[in-house]
Amino acid sequence: MITLDGVSKRYVTKNGTVDALVDVSLDVDQGDVYGIIGFSGAGKSTLLRMVNQLETPDAGTVNVNGQDLTAMSPRELRRQRRDIGMVFQQFNLLETKTVYRNVAMPLLIQGASKAEIDRRVDEVLKIVELEDKRNASIRQLSGGQKQRVGIARALTTQPSILLCDEATSALDPKTTESILALLKKVNREMGVTILLITHQMHVIQRICTKVAVMEAGRIVERGNVLDVFTRPREPITQDFVRTVVNDQIPEPLLEMVQAETRPQELLRLRFVGDTVRQPLLASLSRIEGLEVNILGATVEELQESVLCLFLVQLIGGPEPVRRAEQLLDDAGILRERIAA
Ligand SMILES: Nc1ncnc2c1ncn2[C@@H]1O[C@H](COP(=O)(O)OP(=O)(O)OP(=O)(O)O)[C@@H](O)[C@H]1O
């Protein structure tokens, strides 16, 4: 549905050159909620703006619905952009105008009839649950309500793609949850494909199906959210995952572990989905000559499944520890040894 192929973008300023995108390729399929995560300056905004050609590439192509946007005339591009809505971090609304006027804007620009505009505005305000604010001024709204107006405006032209530029970064945690739930609803019930950029792994966890991690203009890791959360490869991805799934031994317990004089093995275990139901820890503790201590545990909901992370200390000789590791391997549990 969206395909970037070998896209590069270099900005030249009086302070020097910046390679904002370096040979970036990306495939977003219909129905995806695709999240791009990275630190400030990684190139996320530049990538997002390629998809509606607010930025043009120095090299590579940008295809949307099978059409190469980089080869389009300005007129064709304007038509294509109606199929791509955009939601902004700072809402980008006309503060002195009404909700109706803001939401109607894309249709007014297109020259739609008053009857059609009225019908469509009412439809989208219902979706974002702001019917009662139709005639309110934007200034009278909370941040969360403003973002709902921003989403409604992006949906008026019935786009098949929604681009979200840090849509929840200016909102408090509770409002963030409600906006993320709304985006998920837009994806599920209206079939809108979403490409979003964020620096919060929590956003990826809550609504994305796929994720790409960006660093210095490159995509360094990508995949299904469940896979990336379970087996993050790159250090930057591990850092992002750690902000949601803590995988470190808590400081007070570390001292106890380091003071242990008996032979021990420290393991980080990851269980996904059905594996969670197995009574593994009970089985481990039945191994003769083995003492099992839990040093940490996290359970996170992820894509309608659960990811559990356990930090365990196995105290015992080589044979009981080997049996324990065998048991974990047979159960398909991901295990990783950690240093004390
Ligand atoms: N119009 C521009 N002119 C010059 N440099 C730019 C321009 N736009 C972006 N850059 C630079 O390109 C790099 C990537 O910027 P970009 O905004 O895409 O990153 P980002 O990951 O979205 O960052 P943030 O999260 O801070 O928005 C940065 O070094 C930025 O300073």
TrEMBL record:
Pfam families, per the entry: ABC_tran, NIL
Q: Which GO terms describe its molecular function?
A: ATP binding
Among its keywords, does the record have Transport?
yes
InterPro entries in the cross-refs = AAA+_ATPase, ABC_transporter-like_ATP-bd, ABC_transporter-like_CS, ACT-like_dom_sf, MetN_ABC, MetN_ABC_transporter-like, NIL_domain, P-loop_NTPase
Which SUPFAM superfamilies does this one have?
ACT-like, P-loop containing nucleoside triphosphate hydrolases
Q: Which domain of life is it from?
A: Bacteria
UniProt keywords (A-Z) are:
Amino-acid transport, ATP-binding, Cell membrane, Membrane, Nucleotide-binding, Translocase, Transport
Q: Where is the ABC transporter domain?
A: 2-241
Write down the CDD domains for this protein, in alphabetical order: ABC_MetN_methionine_transporter (cd03258)
Q: Which PANTHER family is this protein grouped with?
A: AMINO ACID IMPORT ATP-BINDING PROTEIN, METHIONINE IMPORT ATP-BINDING PROTEIN METN
Q: What is this protein called?
A: ATP-binding cassette domain-containing protein
Task: Name the source organism.
Answer: Oceanitalea stevensii
Q: What is the lineage of its organism?
A: Bacteria, Bacillati, Actinomycetota, Actinomycetes, Micrococcales
